[in-house]
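Support reply, case 0932

Customer input (verbatim):
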Amino acid sequence: MTAVRIGEPARRTGVSTRALRHYEQAGLLAPARADNGYRVYDEDAGIRVRNIRYLLDAGLTLEDVAFFLPCLDGDVAAAPPSAAGLRVARDRLAAMEARIAARTAVRDRLRAALRSASAHEETSAHEETSVHEETSAHEETSVHEETSVHEETSVHEGGRTLVRAQSPGEGGGGEDGRGA
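Our regenerated output:
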């Protein structure tokens, strides 16, 4: 049996060295230590790491995986489930379903609030459009009346708008021909 440093089981299993240290801290891996203090793993560590990943990917937590310690060095996926393992998995499933139900309720409340806000927004937009149309019609009448008295000229210069009122019959504007 050959001992390898932490990088080798990480590379073989596709997990980070940090994850391996985390599994060790959770009591799921127990690498030996070399004289220099480096972690060293036996070749079977890859099997244990793949089983840990299998259980984590199935939705279990590291705490849940600890219940499976006696069988982590075998084929967890193919082994018949134990009563304790089934209880852990059922408890985790119930916790997940409770979280999903809670998140679904939050989503539904947000959806209802958005529908209510959208309905209010549509009502407000309709009322605003009606008021705007009435105001525009009134302003248009006023502008037509003013235009008969004088004409308004707008000139845009460097981001500013210069406006000069001209009487009917008045010529091109100020000294530079652009208006005041």
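We compared this against your earlier run and they match. Two observations from our side: Strands lie at 3-5, 32-33, 39-42, 151-157, 160-166. The radius of gyration is 38 Å. Please reopen the case if you see a mismatch on your end.
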